[in-house]
């Protein structure tokens, strides 16, 4: 069984609120602040526009925020349990959302360019090796002309000793149980990757944490 599916089965069974478990209120607070900043800077499309969250999990983070703001929300996640949970959460709250189990590297079932905004639900840093290139290809295929992409990603070096032991700084990969687990790029390299994909960076916000930094980058095609 896929590792993310295992994690979501456990989270759901133990009654956790979302991926972040007991850290959910803090994660929600940070997300709310970041998205409000983007909204106030007029970097979000108008409510009613179509948005897609990559790695939407149980829908309780960005998808929920956008749905409450009046956007047409779609979300994809590799875990079927997360997707069922997102559907359940939205149904219970009387919200509309189109949630599908899918790999963000292969979104052929979605038509070209429907989304005014694609939001990375901290999914891009879960992709290692050639998966990242595949996901960038899909983002560009799915984003409307003049659409915005918001990357929400770990960045910098791990600060905790335990994490540093499992980090390969030559490939910028954090390992878990001997397997590539996270791409953890220094911020300048993350910015370079975005530019190489043909985007312009319009906004950057970094949150410093005791473990590693987290960046929100709002970008638009050149
Ligand atoms: C850090 S979690 C964040 C989940 C959710 N956005 C949130 O904020 O609660 C990353 C999510 O990406 C999903 N994911 C990882 N790799 C994926 C892939 N290749 N395709 C789709 N989803 C993926 C995981 O299942 C997980 O839900």
From TrEMBL:
Residues 51-147 form the Methyltransferase domain. It comes from the Bacteria. The keyword Cell cycle does not apply. InterPro entries: Methyltransf_25, SAM-dependent_MTases_sf. Keywords: Methyltransferase, S-adenosyl-L-methionine, Transferase. SUPFAM superfamilies: S-adenosyl-L-methionine-dependent methyltransferases. One of its GO terms (molecular function) is methyltransferase activity. GO terms for biological process: methylation. The keyword Endoplasmic reticulum does not apply. This is 2-polyprenyl-3-methyl-5-hydroxy-6-metoxy-1,4-benzoquinol methylase. It comes from Kosakonia oryzendophytica.
């Amino acid at each position: 069984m896929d590792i993310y599916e295992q994690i979501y089965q456990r989270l759901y069974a133990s009654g956790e609120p979302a991926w972040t478990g007991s850290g959910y209120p803090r994660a929600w607070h940070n997300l709310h602040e970041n998205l409000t900043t983007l909204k106030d800077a007029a970097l979000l499309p108008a409510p009613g526009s179509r948005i897609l969250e990559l790695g939407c999990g149980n829908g309780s983070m960005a998808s929920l925020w956008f749905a409450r703001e009046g956007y047409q929300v779609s979300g994809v996640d590799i875990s079927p349990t997360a997707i069922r949970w997102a559907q359940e959460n939205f149904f219970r709250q009387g919200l509309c959302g189109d949630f599908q189990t899918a790999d963000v590297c292969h979104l052929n079932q979605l038509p070209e360019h429907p989304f005014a905004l694609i939001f990375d639900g901290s999914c891009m840093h879960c992709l290692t090796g050639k998966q990242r290139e595949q996901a960038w290809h899909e983002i560009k295929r799915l984003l409307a002309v003049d659409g915005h992409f918001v990357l929400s990603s770990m960045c910098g070096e791990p600060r905790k000793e335990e994490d540093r032991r499992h980090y390969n700084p030559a490939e910028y990969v954090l390992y878990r149980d001997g397997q590539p687990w996270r791409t953890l790029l220094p911020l300048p390299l993350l910015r370079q990757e975005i530019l190489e994909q043909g985007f312009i960076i319009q906004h950057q916000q970094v949150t410093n944490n005791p473990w590693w930094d987290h960046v929100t980058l709002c970008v638009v095609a050149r």
